[in-house]
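chain and backbone:
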Amino acid sequence: MRRAGDVFGRRGNRHLKQLWGLRGLLERLSVALIVLLIGSISLFTTFKTPPVETNGYLRVRCNGGLNQQRTATCNAVLTARIMSATLVLPELDANRFSWIYDVEHFIKLLRYDVHIVETLPEISKHGKSKKDAPVNRYKTVALEVMKEHGAIFLTPFSHRLEEEIDNAEYQRLRCRVNYHALQFKPQIMKLSQAIVSKLHSQGHFMSIHLRFEMDMLSFAVGLILRAMGFDNSTRIYLAAGEFFGGDRFMKPFRALFPHLSNHNTMGLSADELAEGTHGMLGSTVDYMVCLLSDIFLQPYDGPSNVMGHRLYYGFRIIIQPDRKALAPIFIKREKGQTTDFEESVRGVMYNIPFGGPHKRIPPESLYVNSWPECFCQMNPRNTANKCQPLNIVENLNSRLQSEEGMRSSNMTDG
């Protein structure tokens, strides 16, 4: 068994201690506590409350996997706000929204932003919006159709609203949906927390999200982790269904890191996976375990809501290998040039931010990194970016009640 210090000396040992040490302890704070500390950041809104009479109903079908559906739901809420429409609870391909998410929480938290209903009256016009459509399209073309028919149904609703919008409140609304309103059902949260508690009872653990696509083979991931100083005592939770190469490619990885687990080995039965969430329980539990793990490793370059979620809730540690920089190192290894392999890998890996704060520069996605759009400032030049008091929710409730009182008074006077 090799220890971190044995693998790459004092420098590597220092880096590994930073990952597993005090910061690792802080990472294990529950999401609930962190929400109390920073929840006012994107919960705050300068929006006026939505009008009682809206322009019509917006119905959408969010296609794709869990990540794509979350992103589409954020865009649906923002689109409803832009159009002054009432949002019908989003449809998730073959699943119902209520099978996965806490509907009551979703509607209640967004009541200051949009009106949301669970079902649609029997009036609708089907339509398909352009990919990455600009805000103006929803204020003109789509809005005209909605006003004419009373409702509009956009399907499929994936990447149907541009991401780069020069409006801070619009971007904050996306974060408000993604990191506060979209809360899994209590059953999912309870199961996820039980798995995380069980894993933490044995110490630190890392989560890795593997995909079916040939992004980076599991064995290559294993070599990178070994070069970084993680030895065969490292405990790893695998968030994956089918992945490229299957068990044949996992055997070498398992030889390097035998302490592997997933939602099946952690006690989720086939019946539990099938019931309640109609086949989505495994994906949602994986999402939460990856969110709450001490370290999260994503071996592919694509956008990930888990990465964005971990950054938002306290810049939790993330490892995302730079595949472009690592490629020539692995090519040399395949040719038999292995003498400086681990040192070269370390040279690449310890130059990544590990989930620390860094300003988002497009084309990096808002859903991967919402810094600085969704974070407040203590002494901002623009007062709209100022950190709000911790009782912001009570203030919003008071404002909403005041506006409702004024509307009632006006109706009485009329």
Remarks:
- The radius of gyration is 23 Å.
- Residues 10-37+186-349 form a domain with the Rossmann fold fold (CATH 3.40.50).
- Confidence is low (pLDDT under 50) at residues 1-12, 22-40.
- DSSP finds 19 helices and ten strands in the chain.
